[in-house]
Design a protein that fits this description.
Shape: globular
Number of helices: 4
Structural class: mainly beta
Distance between the termini: 28 Å
Helix content: 10-25%
Low-confidence stretches: none
Largest sheet: 7 strands, antiparallel
Strand order of the largest sheet: 3-2-6-9-10-5-4
């Protein structure tokens, strides 16, 4: 089939949905985000790309943020965190919040995976800011692990596609990484 050119405002399909947390004006604030990824192996680092949001002021002021991975059961609250601003609505009571060693990185107890990051650098782009953080701590529960490792089926995360603005559940396993292509090596 022939490739056709489409709008250059493209995205990677799909993108993981997370809830970014920061302490702003002395209270936890949360923002739904999908532009997030691991960006370094050693030391482990996480990056989130954020537009001009209230949460950014807390990240900038405290040098810390959290990346919380919600499950499908938290879709409504996650979406809410993306459609209302902390400038106008207090989202601090929306979740059961706890803290690890970083007081500026509020973590969400209801989320299957919670990652506390110390800000390493902020890269200003024309519209967004890339916040790159050193992963300081990761929290989960035994029920989300298999053989001591996070299990995507147990975590039950969801993803976002744009520009259609839809959430998707993670599907079935398709193959093994660093193994599926071995036949082609011969």
């Amino acid at each position: 089939m022939e490739k056709i050119k489409i709008d250059s405002n493209a995205f990677v399909y799909p993108m993981p949905m997370v809830i970014v947390g920061a302490v702003v004006d002395g209270r936890p604030n949360f923002l739904a985000a999908a532009w997030v990824t691991r960006v370094n192996f050693k030391p482990p680092m996480m990056m989130v790309a954020l537009g001009d949001h209230y949460t950014n002021t807390g990240i900038d002021a405290n040098g810390a943020f959290s990346v919380n991975v919600p499950d499908v059961a938290l879709m409504e609250k996650t979406d809410y965190c993306g459609i209302v601003s902390g400038r106008k609505v207090d989202k601090s009571k929306l979740f059961d919040v706890f803290y690890g060693s970083l007081p500026g990185a509020p973590l969400i107890r209801e989320c299957p995976v919670c990652i506390a990051c110390r800000l390493n650098q902020a890269v200003k782009l024309p519209f967004d800011t890339l916040y790159i953080g050193d992963i300081v701590e990761v929290y989960t529960e035994e029920r989300f692990l298999t053989d001591g490792k996070p299990d995507v089926k147990k975590i039950d995360p969801f993803t976002l596609t744009m520009p259609d603005n839809r959430y998707w559940r993670v599907g079935a396993e398709a193959g093994r990484a660093w193994s599926a292509g071995k036949k082609l090596k011969a």
